[in-house]
């Protein structure tokens, strides 16, 4: 069950299947966002530690290594075993996630199940990665092989620490790569706990390595390392550009899942209560700390006032408080930096003329809690309608026609997700085909699944995670041609 004071066993780096101190001996604090107080000190890795982790990962990827010689089906069994151990330790992992990240405990439980299911999905892919025979010209037998990149670097964010770990580990391990991961400095505890399960499951040394630390030191060392052949990053556009620039040092492959300013279009043919509930879930999930959050809510003018009234009512009813308390739906923001940034955006919204319907203030005098916030009378040129806030702020924007809504929805440098709520099939298809976004949801929102590719258009990312496309991101394609005596 939930434990607001879980036993924290693992605070060191994990390299070559062993927990070790940082070479420098440095540590850094990870903070409980519900209180603003330190939970524990964690070993602070930097370039020297990343070098050691890459060395271990390279050794684990040698052709004669246990990992490389292992049958693909056996790799799948190891990944599945890891998921089984997660299920055994469900409440411990969820408690750590809730403590370190601040999300309500039941949301953390949901994330653990989602992470287990992701690993199980990719466990099933290991022996289904295969090439093709190619009918090439001339007397040749030509075929392709799908081969793992080798050592891959992975940098994950703080908003979904465990899920983002599973999204990265699952396809990389299924492909046969070895991993050097840097978790977010705000939320390293579940990644380190997962390392203990990696060892218990029986993964060979060096296959998975985790180096907590800061972006400019540990993160930069991962992106710049000459022996890392691919880097996967989830986070902000600003840092994503830095990762891509660093990866150019040896032209390593890059996949980036970045920010969003996602539009949700509500047509006037819908049930207002149902539409408002979809929008509410889409924007306030995970305290608004969600890259696909529906922070631009476009509502057709005929139902605009009724929608604003219902949206305000829903936001006011959202229960904010200690993530370990029963019935809590909404915990704190991740840290003081985000807390102040979000409150700053709210002040900007008011100054630029948006109408604050509810929220917009700190809850309590401890931790980083912000009331769910709803703005109406928002226009496209306002800062809160253009920039990613990454907090519990819903901006409700009025539109007249669907064509107008599509044009305005696309008028952004982002393109991660979009949604439409309508009873008209033509509207649904027109919007889905025209909107510039990697995921489009009709009469629902946040419908992310392990089986379906996920990623963004424009500055919302490069490449895809999840589904078959997710494993392709960790595979090279090799073409082999063999001369034969004759064509057949």
From TrEMBL:
The active site is at residue 257. InterPro entries: Ald_DH/histidinol_DH, Ald_DH_C, Ald_DH_CS_CYS, Ald_DH_CS_GLU, Ald_DH_N, Aldehyde_DH_dom. PANTHER family: ALDEHYDE DEHYDROGENASE-RELATED. It comes from Aedes albopictus. It holds the Pfam family Aldedh. Residues 20-480 form the Aldehyde dehydrogenase domain. This is Aldehyde dehydrogenase domain-containing protein. Keywords: Oxidoreductase. It comes from the Eukaryota. Gene3D superfamilies: Aldehyde Dehydrogenase, Chain A, domain 1 (3.40.605.10), Aldehyde Dehydrogenase, Chain A, domain 2 (3.40.309.10). Belongs to the aldehyde dehydrogenase family.
